[in-house]
Write a structure and sequence with these properties.
Largest sheet of chain A: none
Number of helices of chain A: 17
Largest interface: A-B, 25 and 31 residues
Shape of chain B: globular
CATH architecture of one domain in chain A: Alpha Horseshoe
Radius of gyration of chain B: 28 Å
CATH class of one domain in chain A: Mainly Alpha
Shape of chain A: elongated
Radius of gyration of chain A: 35 Å
Distance between the termini of chain B: 86 Å
Number of strands of chain B: 7
Oligomer: heterodimer
């Protein structure tokens, strides 16, 4: 009698399937890990090529390589940041902005992404947005060297503010970092100049004095100190410092110009202590002459009646003979006319007086 | 010594196994529960196998032709790859050639869902080697056959009947596609739309479950990454619909060119001597190698280049070139008998065509059109709809691949236009045409709808008298006894066709009774004994599952009142004949003296 065909055992078949599933899972996991490792290596290779190309200034090729790396490791933020940097360097600001928007959407506290975005906005002349992104970069999360990177980001902001001549904002950014910056000469010099730009000559002077104390032969520091004194209208001290600086760096034409300006100011300023009444009178007359000339040159041929009257008054004053007894009184009168003319000039003349001209500086001192 | 009173305690592990075994055996009688469990099991198994297939192919490809490798390597590797896989396919795995979709449909509809494990094994390894060597074919079609094969193997090993095996094959297909494309919904739709040809198929539950399980397995191993990462696109201006319509036309025409070229080349390769079959794939390898020497982008699946195009990173001139060379390379690779599918190449070609149209449109109307990437995205769906002819699946697939919903309306418009153009200019869908070239007649949606009606099997006469082409007319004529108007002529290679009594009688009257039937048959206008011609017009025939109505139609168009009934698996294999009188009897109509009347 023939033996009936046995029905396959469910247990045995399912057991085999279970074993196959387990073996396949192990194989898949191994292959997936291998793929991840190999992909990461390949992506790193492409990224390194991109970085080298970027350093050589070949940003278009660099973008291509970094994009290739990113197509392998899509979620690598470092690659994405580098891509945005390359795009920014290649002038593709829209692409960089788009790439960074995605990054910042996923993590708004990403400091490096914020920093690059700040640069992008700066390049697009969107300064308020740029300042905002720089602030987020300063207070954001850095993957490494947080203090150093944050300081660097702040300096980028400081440079932007200095460039924009935002004195108050600049000072607000400088004050928190003055004790954090490295003590090297270059940084201290930079800080001194920045404080000067921020309208804080006293702090700048302290820094330059500190440097001179350590390196008495540093001409640049003397020039900086001269500028600080100049900003505080201490033209005599400023001139001395410029002189010293020029002695240490005799070929520096910019220092020479500043020194000459100081000397011109010192020769014109009637408020300097120790001048004889006659000298004060002569300087006041000179001021009236200069303001009259300057205003006549820049005003319309038919100025408003009050300006016309002032001009006539100044011309008349210049012709007046002065007795020694009335020297003081005439000096005050002349200075008053000079000031009024200078104020009138601002109204009737289209072009402002050069701010670093001796006349403008002296008139500024008188106004204070 | 053990005392009699001390009974050994039962082995807890044994009782656990026994209980599990009993629980599993109990499933045998509960068809629904068994289907549920098997859908999960097949989903997990197929998902893992397809993930292994993808990873293995990728790793091998990275070693065989690494980016930046020498040009000679790009020629040698595909040639050697196609040579070795060609031999393996010819010698050991003949059923593992090509895409796998027609083979799966053949197994499902004609072979009771039977796919050998050997075919699954061969498909897995030959395709891996073939694709890794740079052959310009896709991995998704083969995955479908592997998935269907695994479902078939599991079901048959569990001793399930043919109906149950058939119901699990679509689940395997869906699981494979869900893992291969990372598109579970499109996988379900594809299984129903293309494989089953019926969106309301009863296997929907198991197909969904299996696709979902496979997708979960994919995510478990590879994480949640779409196939392509695409920048968000949207319609820039309503006028863009016009450009998308143009893309539909271009996509449709491109699809037709691709399909016709592939079918034409396949037909040419099939006419070559059979002894060259093992060597034919080298033609594909050499074509890819030579093109790849100058255009490396043509090699392999090329999805990384598709992603670049989707993100608008390739210039228009290049994408046109890529589309053309990929069409040629894929057509030659497939037609020459390499293992691999056409899904992936369809997406590649579509993306390049889309980027070409989009690039030109954007250059002309930059204010009113999106970048080329958006058109590449839509182009992928367009080519898929035009080539594979599954418009619904293609829309959902592109959505799932990119996870970008904003472009879906333009995608639908382009897809439908491409679909209609393709249908108009290339009537037979590619998979049916490919099967037809092999002498296999896959049932289409029309045939499925007829299955509920009266079928040829109910009126068929099996084991009819057959005539050999070598017989002289004089010998054949007495064998026919004059009872039928035509008789099947069957040679060594199978059915030649039907030879009419009138032709035989005419030959006798003309004094040609010594002539062989083959000569008589070949002299009849429109008749031929060549293999490869197997359409209803060339060889009038019916299949067992055809309706009797269709049989009557074909009798009318061929002028024969006797038709051969042939196998769907091999159109030259005669199963029987169907006679007009028998059909009428089946309908309850008797013929008396030439008049037809209803019988009681």
């Amino acid at each position: 009698m023939a033996k009936p065909l046995a029905t396959p055992s469910f247990l045995g078949t399912f057991g085999l399937i279970f074993l196959a599933v387990a073996a396949l899972f192990a194989a898949d996991t191994f292959l997936a890990r291998m793929e991840r490792t190999e992909s990461a290596v390949e992506a790193a290779r492409l990224f390194d090529q991109g970085r080298v190309l970027m350093q050589r200034g070949n940003n278009t090729a660099a973008i291509e390589r970094i994009q290739d790396a990113l197509s392998i490791e899509r979620t690598n933020r470092y690659y994405q940041q580098a891509l945005a940097q390359a795009q920014l360097a290649a002038g593709k600001t829209a692409d960089a902005e788009s790439a960074l928007s995605g990054l910042l959407q996923s993590d708004p506290t990403d400091a490096l992404a914020n920093l690059i975005m700040g640069r992008v906005q700066e390049k697009l002349s969107r300064f308020p947005e740029a300042i905002s992104y720089f602030h987020r970069a300063i207070y954001g999360k850095w993957s490494q060297n947080a203090a150093q990177n944050s300081l660097q980001a702040r300096f980028e902001l400081i440079d932007l503010l200095a460039q924009r001549d935002s004195k108050e904002d600049l000072l607000a950014e400088l004050l928190p970092v003055q004790d954090q910056v490295p003590r090297d000469l270059k940084t201290r010099m930079r800080m001194g100049h920045l404080f000067l730009r921020a309208g804080s000559p006293a702090r700048a002077a302290d820094i330059f004095r500190g440097i001179i104390q350590e390196i008495p032969t540093n001409g640049e520091a003397y020039a900086g100190l001269g500028e600080s004194q100049f900003a505080e209208s201490n033209y005599r001290v400023a001139a001395r410092n410029f002189e010293t600086a020029l002695r240490l760096a005799p070929d520096d034409q910019s220092i020479r110009k500043r020194r000459d300006l100081c000397n011109q100011l010192l020769a014109l300023d009637p408020t300097i202590r120790g001048l004889s009444p006659l000298e004060r009178l002569n300087r006041s007359r000179k001021l009236v002459e200069l303001t009259l000339h300057d205003t006549s040159q820049c005003a319309d041929p038919t100025p408003p009646p009050e300006t016309r009257a002032l001009l006539d008054q100044a011309a008349k004053a210049l012709k007046t003979r002065v007795s020694p007894a009335s020297e003081g009184e005439v000096t005050e009168f002349d200075l008053d006319i000079a000031e009024q003319l200078w104020q009138a000039r601002a109204k009737v003349c289209k072009s402002a007086a050069p701010p670093d001209s001796p006349l403008a500086l002296v008139m500024g001192t008188l106004a204070h | 010594m053990i005392k009699n009173s001390q009974r050994p305690s039962p082995d807890p592990s044994q009782s656990w196994i026994v209980k599990l075994g009993r629980s599993l055996e109990n499933l045998r009688g509960r068809e629904n529960q068994l289907s549920l469990v098997l859908s999960l099991v097949i989903g997990a198994l197929v998902g893992l196998v397809v993930v292994a297939f993808i990873l293995l192919t990728g790793r091998l490809a990275a070693r065989m032709y690494p980016p930046g490798g020498s040009g000679w390597r790009r020629i040698l590797v595909p040639v050697l790859g196609s040579l070795s896989t060609g031999y393996l396919l010819w010698r050991y795995f003949p059923s593992a050639r090509g895409s796998g979709i027609p083979q799966t449909k053949f197994a499902l509809f004609i072979n009771d869902g039977r796919i050998q494990f050997r075919t699954v094994f061969g498909k897995f390894f030959c395709c891996s080697a073939s694709l890794a060597s740079g052959i310009a074919l896709g991995r998704e079609g083969p995955s479908v056959q592997v998935g269907a094969g695994l479902a078939s193997v599991v079901a048959r090993n569990l001793g399930l009947d043919a109906k149950q095996v058939r119901s699990l094959v679509p689940a395997g297909c869906a699981a494979a596609l869900a893992a291969a494309f990372n598109t579970p919904i499109a996988a379900v739709l594809f299984s129903l739309e293309e494989i089953m040809g019926d969106l309301h198929a009863a296997v929907l539950g198991s197909v969904v479950l299996s696709a979902a399980t496979s997708w979960m397995v994919l995510h478990l191993v590879l994480g949640d990454e779409p196939l392509f990462h695409v920048a968000g696109y949207q319609l820039v201006n309503p006028a863009e619909f016009g450009v998308y319509a143009v893309l539909g036309v271009v996509g449709g025409l491109g699809s037709v060119v691709f399909v016709k070229l592939l079918l034409g080349l396949r037909s040419w390769f099939m006419r070559l001597p059979k002894s060259s079959v093992w060597f034919q794939p080298v033609a594909g390898g050499l074509t890819v190698g030579l093109i790849g020497y100058f255009v490396p982008e043509v090699m392999g699946v090329g999805y990384n280049y598709v992603e670049k195009v989707l993100n608008g990173d390739i210039v228009v001139k290049l994408v046109v070139l890529f589309a053309v060379v990929k069409i040629v390379a894929t057509a030659v690779c497939y037609a020459s008998g390499n293992a691999g599918g056409i899904f992936g190449p369809a997406l590649f070609i579509g993306a390049m065509m889309g980027a070409s149209v989009g690039g030109v449109a954007h250059a002309w109307f930059p204010q009113y059109t999106a970048g080329p990437g958006a058109y590449a995205l839509v182009g992928m769906g367009t080519a898929f709809a035009g080539i594979v002819r599954t418009p619904l699946t293609s829309v959902i697939m592109i959505f799932e691949i990119t996870r970008d919903y904003t472009i879906i309306v333009p995608l639908m418009i382009s897809n439908l236009i491409a679909f209609f153009i393709s249908q108009k200019l290339q009537e037979e869908p590619i998979y049916e045409a490919l099967a037809s070239q092999e002498g296999v007649h896959l049932p289409n949606a029309h045939a499925s709808s007829q299955s509920a009606q009266m079928q040829v099997r109910q009126a068929m006469r099996s084991g009819p008298q057959i005539l050999s082409p070598d017989l002289p007319v004089a010998t054949a004529l007495p064998m026919t006894n004059g009872s039928l108007d035509a008789w099947p002529l069957v040679g060594e290679e199978g059915l030649w066709g039907m030879i009419r009594m009138s032709d035989l009688e005419h030959a006798v009257r003309d004094g040609a009774s010594g002539k062989k039937l083959a000569d008589i048959f070949n002299n009849i206008p429109g008749q031929t004994s060549r293999s490869g011609h197997s359409t209803a017009e060339e060889l009038p025939h019916v299949h067992l599952d055809h309706s009797l109505g269709l049989a009557l139609e074909r009798m009318g168009s061929s002028g024969l009142n006797v038709l051969p009934v042939v196998s769907r698996a091999n159109v030259r294999q005669l199963l029987g004949i169907v006679v007009l009188d028998d059909i009428l009897k089946t309908y309850g109509v008797a013929r008396r003296g030439g008049d037809m009347e209803p019988t009681d």
